[in-house]
Amino acid sequence: MLSVFKPVIEKPMQPVARALKNVNPNYVTMLGFVFPILFFICVVQEQYALALFVFIFNGVDMLDGMIARANGKVTAFGGFLDSTIDRFADFIVIAAFGFAHIVAWEIVMPFILLTYAISYMRSRIELASDKKLVANVGIMERTERLVGLFVGLLLYALFPDVTVAGQNLIELTCIVMIILSAVTVLQRFEFAYKKLP
After folding, report:
1. Could you tell me the pLDDT band of residue 46, with boundaries at 50, 70 and 90?
2. What span, in angstroms and rounded, lies between the C-alpha atoms of 181 and 197?
3. What local confidence, expressed as pLDDT, does residue 69 receive?
4. Residue 24 and residue 22: Cα distance in Å, rounded?
5. d(CA 152, CA 143)
6. Are 70 and 23 contacting, i.e. CB atoms less than 8 angstroms apart?
């Protein structure tokens, strides 16, 4: 859904990508992994304002691909590395809430499972179709998940004592995203059923 805004977000970053033409995009990919780790540390230490600030730098994840495309450095390994680092980053970011004891592990674990399922289903559909299909279908992709987590943590930081049915605001946010993620899994299953031979 939010991926339709990607070109708008990338446009002001194009000059930066061109300026970094001598930088190996794989190094940028690996540098981007630092920010989820810093986010994890900040959340566990209850430094929520700093965690939100660090979270913004997840945008570096877009820069590696932009550098590669702008400077003719797109490689299969680069795509593999980016996707793999994203999976580790997803785990670290979501698990941070469990380790910080602000989201119950009963919520964290299915959230992680569905996050991985959504990613796996896309790659498996595209592989099965010899890359003839782009399976970015569904209402809860990675961008939506990151935005949701940012908003949920912001609300929790502002209103830590607010609860609904015994759940704090970040837990409620995660529950909503679990439901939307489950819907996305079904949407991708339907897409695969209709499009794959």
Report:
1. very high
2. 25
3. 79
4. 7
5. 14
6. no
Q: Quote the CA–CA distance of 110 and 39 in Å, as a whole number.
A: 21
pTM of the predicted model as reported, rounded to 2 decimal places: 0.90
2-195: CATH, from 1.10.1660.10, 1.20.120.1760, 1.10.10.10, 3.30.2280.10: 1.20.120.1760
Q: How many CB atoms lie within 10 A of CB 121?
A: 20
Q: How confident is the model at residue 17 (pLDDT cuts 50, 70, 90)?
A: low
18, 71 Cβ separation under 8 angstroms: yes
Residue type, 78: G
Tokens of 174: 């995660």
* pLDDT tens column, 144-157: 999 999 999 999 99
Per-residue HEC secondary structure of the chain comes to CHHHHHHHHHHHHHHHHHHCCCCCHHHHHHHHCHHHHHHHHHHHCCCHHHHHHHHHHHHHHHHHHHHHHHCCCCCHHHHHHHHHHHHHHHHHHHHHHHHCCCCCHHHHHHHHHHHHHHHHHHHHHHHHCCCCCCCCCCCCCHHHHHHHHHHHHHHHHHCCCCEECCEEHHHHHHHHHHHHHHHHHHHHHHHHHHHCC
* Side chain identity, residue 149: L
Look at residue 12 in the predicted model and tell me its pLDDT. Answer: 63
